[in-house]
Fold each of these.
Amino acid sequence: MNARRGDPNYNQAVQDEALEICQELGLSPLLAKLPGGLEQLVGETGWQLSQGERSRVFMARVLLQQPQVVILDESLGALDPECFELALNRVEKRAEVLILGRSLLKTT
């Protein structure tokens, strides 16, 4: 899902990590539908995603960058409670510091 497209450091290890993150975020069914799998272009000029899929793809892209700090506000607001909890657990597992906006705290 063009997570690291154009990155000179993109290799098999990064691709494996991207696949693992996508699976952790519950994106396996989406990946199975995409003709290009992880390499499929998504967005306005590519494969159209639901709001929930977009949110989880966004999270996968963030987590693939291995950030120390993740700040979330509205980015997970479109997820149903189960997907929200799953995504939040993945971020907590992979980021050293997680900051949640007040609007997200109200949905949990």
Note: Strands lie at 69-72, 97-100.
Amino acid sequence: MLTSLRSHWPEYLMEGAELGIFMAVAGSFATLFNAPVSPVVAVIPSSFLRSVMMGCTMGITAISVIYSPWGKRSGAHFNPAVTLAFYRLGKLQGWDALFYVLAQFVGGLAGILLVAAVLGEPFTSLPVHYIVTIPGAGGWLAALVAEFVLASGLMLAILVFSNHDRLHERTGIFAGMLVALFIIVGGPISGMSINPARTFASALPAHVWTAFWVYYAAPPAGMLLAAEFYLQRSRQHPKTLCGKLCPNAETRCICLDCPCQDMPTPAERPQIDPIER
């Protein structure tokens, strides 16, 4: 444990900060798009259009975090379910996975508390109310199914793209696009969490624990199923996996047996003469 802490504490802090930033952006823009005092609500009365705006905002935020220097180094999981899936795939040591998860919970909560302190009542009161994730009109069963399907779909896409010879550098773009789409589609059903730390960060200060178990059971189960499916497939077609959402050779990688170590850095890549293009 101490060896992992001494060696990888910067990555743990980065993971926490990444989810904290994501939650702070989510809380700020949810207030801008939905709080009754916001002029946006009067200008754009359609809740669907505002949800599209919210989805696009968070998709861009996810892409920005993934491709940030911190995201490139830690792997930009900022989700315990993603971390558990990569642990199942043998890409993280046990202590690294544990400290990643702890950092994500702390970071997510810090992001929400920061927004609450800055924005106050427009953020903490209804309809924004700390952006808590609760089941929609379909109840907990619909939320359970939605969270499971969305989580498994996101994780499978991450694994497919991040370990593709030509598309791995664009994994973060695909992941961000899916986040945007899932917020628009899944928001009315489950609040679109697919992240236990994200749900906890909102539920604790809001004191809202409605169907809380759904958001702890479905996302890890969905992502672990996707990891298991990919693992079985990779046994038929052996290939070294990467434990990052943005495989790169620019930064240190704490993943086990990672192909990033063999990837050329940007400076090492062959330069193509513009005339020859």
Note: The CA atoms of residues 187 and 226 lie 22 Å apart.
Amino acid sequence: MFQASDSSVGVEVSGIGAVGNRILSNSIFSNKELGIDLFGDFEDASGNTANDPATWIQGPTTCRTSMSSARKSASGKTLVKGRLGSAPNRTYTIQLFSNPKGTNEGKKLIGQRTSLTTDSSGKVSFSFSTRKAIALGSTIIATAIDSSALDTSEFSAPKKVVAS
């Protein structure tokens, strides 16, 4: 179920049966709280939902994406590296978004990596090179979409674009 409860949260997905919620290629920004909130029972103080193996099949909390670097090269392209942790041996699409300096949601879709499959421990690393320049100081965030369950993760923590 998608629910826009108020202007605090961009998209909220809640309920143990809330599966198959693809949130693709959207521009989600300027919210007081999370841009995508998977309302679950393993949330930190900020409302971010952690991996919960018990709900990989039953609910919306499917995976956690983290960015390890976002470096702008002399050629102007930005190389983004990150990791995905989720259920073992599942295939995902990672969508990457850029944001103006100081914001942490998904304002502009900059590309995606498809067909990333987690290993037997539920992990996979990824890299992505942008076609266009991303300004230094901007932030990059990601979502992960489970190709079989069709669920989308919350936004990853942001990574600031720095010079190589």
Note: The longest strand covers residues 108-117.
